[in-house]
Amino acid sequence: DLSTSIAGVALPNLFFNASGVWCQHESELKELLDSESGSLITKSATFEHREGNPSPRYVPLPTGSINSMGLPNEGFEYYLNYAKNYDYTNKKPLFVSLSGLSLQDNVKMVEQFAAADLPCVLEINFSCPNVPGKPQLGYDMEAMENALKVLAPIVKKPFGIKLPPYFDIAHFDAVAAIVNKIDNLAFVTCVNSVGNGLAIDFETETAVIKPKDGFGGLGGAMILNTALANVNAFHRRLTGGKQVIGVGGVTSGKEAFLHVLAGASAVQIGTQLKEEGPSFFARVKKELEEIMQAKGYKSLDDFRGKVKTL
Ligand code: DHB
């Protein structure tokens, strides 16, 4: 049994896409709906449509991927309309990712969602590393706390935030303390890409992506341990039933199992979904079910957060 629930909403299984992968256009969202994913989330929306950065802007690497997409998206109204027309009786709940370029834009978008009163769940992105000249909110504790205090009462319902990876225990403490103050902040999604890596082609001596002199967010297998640390750090610190969605480095059922062991209540897939396509969901479900069977676990609750320490 791979069922779970996030923010009080039931998912038939714990797996869905990481925002940004396979979710910019309705045709891609349809493919997620037709897959064995347990849910789906839309591409991070800005108030206006964006073309994003010049290509190449996503490149697979031997142990993951690098990207600097630059928030290409259809604009907020496209995803609001998608959410308005979504069939909420189909068992897969809908998540919507919002990534305003300013707090004012986030306020405007969240207000319109609140006014539409839809059963979808918002994941507000505090961690886009790829817009030139914009530092990400997730690394500015004061700005993050202020944004949450402004946005949470407008959202009203339970919602979540997408966080960047942290690398310092003091930062885990500080961010968790802020999150714990916001009553209707029901989950954190850990982690966004590891920001501003650089991949260089050995033969041509050239950066592999075009934007930002080749700097971009790292994803995939190479970030698994950073992701697990962030999932577990927040799982240990969050109070009041707040949940963690794990994302980072899942290429098979084994890494998904580790994310749940670290404390994840659901697991999102980025790089591997981009590379393998939506049929990945059938494979990873089967692999996780086989692992649970072999270990004698019947439900995710049997092992969620139960990583042992020495
Ligand atoms: C983009 C990348 C991110 O990591 C994110 O959170 C939002 C957008 C992008 O480059 O499009």
TrEMBL record:
Its EC number is 1.3.98.1. InterPro entries: Aldolase_TIM, DHO_dehydrogenase, DHOD_1A, Dihydro_DH_chainA_dom2, Dihydroorotate_DH_1_2, Dihydroorotate_DH_cat, Dihydroorotate_DH_CS. One of its GO terms (molecular function) is dihydroorotate dehydrogenase (fumarate) activity. GO terms for biological process: 'de novo' pyrimidine nucleobase biosynthetic process; 'de novo' UMP biosynthetic process. It is found in: Cytoplasm. CDD domains: DHOD_1A_like (cd04741). One of its GO terms (cellular component) is cytoplasm. Its cofactor is FMN. The keyword Transit peptide does not apply. Residues 2-292 form the Dihydroorotate dehydrogenase catalytic domain. Keywords: Cytoplasm, Flavoprotein, FMN, Oxidoreductase, Pyrimidine biosynthesis. It catalyses: (S)-dihydroorotate + fumarate = orotate + succinate. Pathway: Pyrimidine metabolism; UMP biosynthesis via de novo pathway. Belongs to the dihydroorotate dehydrogenase family. Type 1 subfamily. Homodimer. Catalyzes the conversion of dihydroorotate to orotate with fumarate as the electron acceptor. This is Dihydroorotate dehydrogenase (fumarate). It comes from Circinella minor.
